[in-house]
Structure formats: C-alpha cells, structure tokens
Amino acid sequence: MESKRTQAISAIEIDNDRVFVTKWEFKPGAETGWHRHEHDYVVVPLIDGELLLETKEGDTKSTLQSGKPYSRNLGVEHNVVNINSFDFSFVEIELK
After folding, report:
1. What are the C-alpha distances in Å from 59 to residues 10, 19, 29, 47, 53?
2. How far apart are CA 11 and CA 56, in angstroms?
3. Radius of gyration in angstroms for the set of CA atoms belonging to the chain, rounded to a whole number
4. Less Cβ around it within 10 Å: N or C end of the chain?
5. Digit-coded pLDDT (tens) for 30-60
6. Cβ contacts of 58 within 8 Å, gap of 6 or more
7. 68 neighbors 45 (Cβ within 8 angstroms)
8. CA 29 to CA 94: how far, in whole Å?
C-alpha cells in the first residue's frame, strides 16, 4: 500500500571514506519512507519533538531532545514520520 504522506527532505552534508552525514527536514506528517540502515549511525535532533517509528514489529513513538544524540546499529529497518504539528529536523551520521 502506497503512503499518501509527503516525503521528508534530505540533504547530504558530508560523504567521505569514514562518514555519511545527512540533514533531514520534515514538514508535519512527512516521512522518510521505508529503509534499512547499512551502517551503524548516530542521530542528533535539532529541536525537541516526537517521531513515529514504523517497523515490521510495530509502531513506537520516540521523544527527542535538541542536541541529545542517540545511536543504533546497522540493520535497522523502519519508516520515520514527523507526528508533531511543527517542522522537525535532525542530523544523521552514518559510520562507514
């Protein structure tokens, strides 16, 4: 089933032999689309807010704080959705 949500906007900030850094910007209701992480990664939220993480195991809400990073291991599969009533953004750093 195809989603009717808008697509989050990604901008590549750094792509070298060690890291891949992407800035993600979401309008309310926007999503990344389903994807699988091929590298370990760190996410640094740029503002406070909540995201919906849709996974094959079920959906969860994640509360994020500006400047407070979290990390995940490679292999994560999900769709990330901005469930706030305002724009949301974060920086994702993938470790090659």
Report:
1. 22, 29, 15, 22, 6
2. 27
3. 13
4. N
5. 999 999 999 999 999 999 999 999 999 999 9
6. none
7. yes
8. 24
Written as six digits, the tokens of 36 are 């699988």
30 - beta bridge partners? none
Give burial (CB, 10 Å; 0-12/13-18/19+) of 78: buried
DSSP string of the chain, one letter each residue: ----SPBPEEEEEEESSSEEEEEEEE-TT-B--SEE-SSEEEEEESS-EEEEEEETTEEEEEEE-TT--EEE-TT-EEEEEE-SSS-EEEEEEEE-
Residue 28 CB contacts under 8 Å (≥ 6 apart), including other chains: 82, 84, 85, 86, 87
Task: Provide the whole-model pTM.
Answer: 0.92
